[in-house]
Amino acid sequence: MRAKYYQEDDLLVIELVKKAYVEAEKIGSFIVHYDKNKQPVLVEILNASKLLKETSKALPTNLRQSIFSAT
User: Fold this and answer.
1) Which superkingdom is the protein from (predicted)?
2) What is d(CA 41, CA 62) in angstroms, rounded to the nearest whole number?
3) Contact yes or no for 14/45 (Cβ under 8 A)
């Protein structure tokens, strides 16, 4: 699993597995991308800094600093 934060878009992308995705579904502040077997492979969190303020203690320190230094 890999995660990357895009400060200019306030977007956190979490790659669950390195596979191609064929469809996506928006669920609230999340966009979940699925493979051909309907298994999630990638999750995008929109407005990540706002959404994650309350749950930031669960994030790795370097990712947390990257996200919250943007706000």
Assistant:
1) Bacteria
2) 23
3) yes
What is the number of structural domains in the chain? 1
Q: How far apart are CA 14 and CA 45, in angstroms?
A: 8
End-to-end, the C-alpha distance of the chain in Å comes to 25
Higher-pLDDT residue of 21 and 60 is 21
Query: Could you list the residue range(s) of the whole structural domain that residue 39 is in?
Result: 2-68
How much is the pLDDT for 61?
Answer: 75
b/e per residue 46-70 (b: at least 16 CB within 10 A): eebbebbeeeeeebeeebbebbeee
Torsion on CA atoms 27, 54, 5, 43, rounded to nearest 10: -30
